[in-house]
């Protein structure tokens, strides 16, 4: 694959992750601890960022474990059926985000003409994802940005706090490790 395409993918996906890191790291600790909807969106975003970077998905092994729960057993603030096994600290979530950022960078820069034929295939049941690797990367970028926007609007509405936009990976002053 052309290095220019790898660079473009990384610049944009990395920027999306940087914006997620930025909104989580700039969230007031008290707000983070008391507004569980913010917490559950953050956790969901991080878990699925990692999951969609796991090719094949059968190799997915979350750093911060969860349990799948039925609707009646989920906290009201949860946004899906993946419930964290405990309430992880903001720093644990940021460390996981840093791990995911590095994993994403490695995946993007490992792409070549041969690996573009790889697939993200969950299984053979109706509704299971079966996407080419490039499509799951773009899907993941959109998923990450969607939930980052939700977190941004919560901080804007509840705390009148504005987060910066990232044009390319690395242009925000976040705590990630390159």
TrEMBL record:
Residues 76-151 form the DinB-like domain. This is DinB-like domain-containing protein. It comes from Mucilaginibacter terrae. Pfam families: DinB_2 (PF12867).
């Amino acid at each position: 694959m052309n290095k220019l395409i790898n660079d473009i993918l990384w610049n944009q996906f990395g920027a999306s992750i940087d914006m997620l890191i930025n909104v989580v790291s700039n969230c007031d600790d008290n707000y983070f601890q008391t507004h569980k909807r913010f917490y559950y969106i953050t956790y969901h975003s991080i878990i699925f960022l990692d999951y969609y970077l796991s090719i094949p998905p059968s190799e997915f092994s979350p750093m911060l474990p969860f349990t799948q729960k039925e609707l009646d057993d989920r906290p009201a603030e949860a946004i899906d059926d993946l419930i964290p096994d405990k309430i992880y600290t903001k720093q644990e979530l940021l460390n996981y985000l840093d791990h995911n950022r590095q994993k994403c960078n490695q995946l993007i820069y490992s792409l070549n003409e041969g690996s573009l034929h790889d697939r993200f295939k969950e299984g053979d049941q109706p509704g299971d994802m079966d996407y080419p690797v490039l499509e799951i990367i773009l899907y993941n970028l959109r998923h990450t940005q969607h939930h980052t926007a939700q977190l941004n609007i919560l901080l804007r509405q509840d705390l009148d706090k504005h987060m910066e936009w990232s044009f390319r990976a690395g242009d925000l002053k976040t705590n990630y490790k390159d």
